[in-house]
Amino acid sequence: MPARQLPLDLRLRDHSRFETFHADGNALAAATLEAMAAGEGGVTERQVFLHGGAGSGKTHLLQAACHEAFAQRRSCAYLPLQELHALNPGVVLEGMAGLQLLVLDDLHAVTGRPEWERALFGLINQVRERGGQLLLAARAAPEAIGCRLPDLTSRLGWGPVFRLDQPGDLELKAILQKRGALRGLELSGPVADYLLRHECRDLEVLLSLLDRLDLAALAEQRRLTIPFIREQLRRPPPGRE
């Protein structure tokens, strides 16, 4: 079964763009990926590895790179290996070596598994031989994600390796308010603080919650106030009733 027929929803999130990424301490990594995805000047990195904990922005940057590559009419694919790890790597990776930009997220989900490690080792070699580019991401640096194949570890570090800093509360607040503004929502300081006090600090969870609150506010013609949010948080998310 060709990779394009994988029975999974691998669509990119529309909001994952470089302009919506709150860079701060990760500005160099973001700028490197943006130039790489655009193919600027013909002198860009061939391979970049990002690592950081949940909510550090890895997936946002990887998907932003895909959006930019598509905007430049470059061939590109985004593969979240956390969702694909149970499949045959030969099926998942078939035809990927010929892309101009290949993006592999959640590498830690498949390391330690011989069939996946051999497939990734061969894939990285093929991409480089054909002049393509690789964007890779995992929770930890290449030497700390449990590779059993030493040559794979060395190849994962062939290009720049960036550790992404976790956003602090002030950064999370700024990100939420910026995302709200992009959606036409007024997210006051006290409301943003309330969300941070009552929800986990995982950025993707917070942004998903903001999307849910936006839809609820539109449906009920309400503003995002603390009482409205408290009411919504008592309700099960859509699809879990």
Structure description:
Helices cover 45% and strands 10% of the residues. The N terminus is likely disordered. It is elongated and about 55 Å long. It has a 5-stranded parallel β-sheet with strand order 2-3-4-1-5, with helices on both faces. The protein has 10 helices and 5 strands, in the order H-E-H-E-H-H-E-H-E-H-E-H-H-H-H. Strand 3, helix 5 and strand 4 form a beta-alpha-beta unit. The protein starts with 26 loop residues before the first helix and ends in a 7-residue tail after the last helix. With 241 residues, the chain is of the alpha/beta class.
Question: What's the layout of helices and strands?
Answer:
Blueprint: H1 27-38, E1 47-51, H2 58-71, E2 76-80, H3 81-84, H4 89-92, E3 101-105, H5 114-129, E4 133-138, H6 150-156, E5 161-163, H7 169-182, H8 189-198, H9 203-220, H10 226-234
Helix pairs in contact: 1-2, 5-6, 7-8, 7-9
